[in-house]
């Protein structure tokens, strides 16, 4: 293997010079910034597409739910499930009521 003077800086024995290090750092920072910019753009596009798909699905499901609730078969199935599970339109809760009674003392 012959020694080529054009590739002297690539030899393992000599470390790169200060100017080479500065250029490498500037290039690395520049590439990191460009990569970050592209990743932000890709993320924004993905977020926008995801929002559009979510809204479209919500709208389709809304229409489907309305159609389903009008279907007599669905209404009958819902009634049967409520009867089997014992569900009703009663909302359970606790009521606290204060009763103020006036004390009447009897005088004999």
Strand content: under 5%
Largest sheet data: none
Number of strand segments: 0
Using only C-alpha atoms, the radius of gyration works out to 38 Å
Give, in order, the helices and strands: HH
Distance between the termini: 131 Å
Mean of residue pLDDT values: 83
- Poorly predicted sequence stretches spanning 5 or more consecutive residues: none
Structural class, by secondary structure, is mainly alpha
Structural commentary:
This protein has 108 residues and is mostly helical. Helix content is 62%, strand content 0%. The longest helix is centred in the middle third of the chain and has 53 residues, at 18-70.
Q: What are its keywords?
A:
108 residues, mainly alpha, 0% strand
Summarize the structure.
By secondary structure, the chain is mainly alpha-helical.
Secondary structure topology:
Layout: H1 18-70, H2 72-85
